[in-house]
Write a structure and sequence with these properties.
Shape: globular
Structural class: mainly alpha
Number of strands: 5
Oligomer: single chain
Number of helices: 10
Largest sheet: 3 strands, mixed
Order of helices and strands: HEEHHHEEEHHHHHH
Mean pLDDT: 82
Distance between the termini: 88 Å
Helix content: 55-70%
Low-confidence stretches: 214-220
Strand content: 5-15%
Strand order of the largest sheet: 3-5-4
Length: 304
Amino acid sequence: MRQDPSGRQRGAGQAGRRGGLFGNFRWIILLGFAVYGGCYYLSNRSVDPYTGQKVLIDNSLDAEQEKALGLQAYQQILSQEHPLDPHSQVARQVREIARRLIAKVDVVESALAAEHGQQPRHFSRDFDWDVNVIQSDQANAFCLPGGKMAVYTGLLPVAQNADAVAVVMGHEIAHALLRHGAQRMAQQKLTQIGQMAGAASGMDAQQQQMMMAAMGYGYLLPYARSHETQADEVGLMLAAAACFNPQEAVPLWERMDSASGGQAPPEFSSTHPNPGTRIQNLQALMPKAMEYRQRFCRGAAAGV
């Protein structure tokens, strides 16, 4: 290493300047991505009429694109699974539950939007609704964007009755009505922006993992849990309005917890509320659900 006449080490000073320049450049990159992520977040926010909350949905994703994505996923699932004969008794019963729930979507959306001072958008009027029953031990169901639904036969012995099946199907329909799939896509774009920021700024793999873990526990997982809570509320109102008994929701989730063997992860590290939290929320919603049943339970049979 060379020394100048005063005895200072010139190489060390140059290395320090290079390190300082690189550090400044890293912060400039991070700041640039932060501005980009912030602009994306703020410019793609809208108010959801069902909840009155501001949500993140990419403005470039229109309803037809969302439906096409849902249809593609649905066709892929049905090609790999084993749907029951649509003329079977179970399939007909499930389709009737779906029919009653779908018939009440508009009135429930209008009522919830009015509660939040919003105008209903009736986004789902263009849905191409369809439902299949799939032979599987899974105690599960789903509703994809665009209204494509399936109920797994493993759900039926846990549900035990049509009211509980309606609670689950209402919950799944609510995910589609609330456009949770589109919200997750926008959320994933923000995550990708964060990953690109980490890589471009020179973070090593461990630092990037720490950053993504912080995003997961601080933003992504709570966001997913809020989706489940929203779907519980909207789905319960749908079931009540369609003349099903919303009080079946609590024993249903108690049975679901028992069927899982109580193996749910801690709530802070899960995308779903823990069963105890979910049951408390449903119990708190029960007076409202019974009021919806009284207001809107018309034009549907009391049983299946």
